[in-house]
Amino acid sequence: MLLNSYDEWSPLKEIIVGSATNYISHERELSFDLFFHDNLIRSEWAYPRLSVRSGEARQEPSPIKKRYLEELQEDIEGIVQALQGLGVSVLRPLELDAGTSEVRTPAFSASVVPPLNLRDNTLILGDEIIETPPMVRSRYFETQFLTPVFHQYFRRGARWTVMPRPLMTDASFDLSYAASATVGGPTEVIEDPRSSPYDVGFEMMFDGAQCLRLGRDIITNISTANHALAVDWLERHLEGRFRIHRVHRLSDSHIDSMVLALRPGTLLVRDKEVADFLPESLRKWDMVVAPAPAENAFPQYEDDDLVLTSPFIDLNVLSVSPDTVLVNEACPELIRTLEQQKFTVVPVRHRHRRLFGGGFHCFTLDTVREGGPEDYLD
Predict the structure, then answer these.
(1) Residue 334 is assigned to a structural domain of this protein
(2) Is the pTM here over 0.85, yes or no?
(3) CB within 8 A of 355, min separation 6: which ones?
(4) Is 377 among the domain residues?
């Protein structure tokens, strides 16, 4: 099929679903802690404090229990089957080989993770693949696992662009959000970052999951100077084709567990206060407020299990069409809420989304939808 994806709800024809093969640990370092700032709530007794600086020996990664990974892989296959059952063609990335344990650049080295949360490091805009500049060191080359898929779309006529990649020294990161935000943490802010011969100051870092795609319009969440630089680049690159609308500090980075567009005129939001951040024209849309997550909606974890998302992760649904939505089967309240809004809900199992940092929208990258560059905003 030809690459074509302009929005979050048009009838879905083809999608890439991520892989968790050989996902064995999380590496706690500066970029990881900043990325998960709002949700990595910790104290001296809960999680070890960040004590390693660039250039020093790295601390041991936090292991992921084998049972969680096995159950995650079962659930990913369930997502694939659910989509195929709805007539959607499903593509997969290359799997992480067990022998590939580290990513290394001139500026840093980090443990490598598999291509699971595909929404993050790629932005699909119409007929263009845009590889975005990563925010987490361990994911620096993640889009390489998608190379065979991207090559196929390119051969069929798609544009394929790679945004400037950051060096990612300590000095590359704008720490102001972590220093001032009150949602998460307390993250241990590095006030005196370790210097590097590769320091160039703040650099572009930005994820596709910071964007809400609405035909010709793109809502982008900006919380740091890193994000702002990347959006500057996007505005220049997309001029005349798309309109960028900036919202500020709706979250630490991603927008898709705060607000999702389910169809033209309808948003799913975490709470009514989300509207205060949105462009005025988008505030006119109907807003379905997700019910508060039930305590029994999540597995019980042990003290050494690293929880990476808020309890609102299940707002991260995936629309298959303007009236059909994949929702976690563990959320009956959300299912009823959407059914009351006349959506057809497809319940799918997804147990360990809080340990692996993503829901259905995060784990997927829709590449072919029927919609075009429509104008949905006044």
Answers:
(1) yes
(2) yes
(3) 64, 68, 72, 301, 305, 306, 307, 308
(4) no
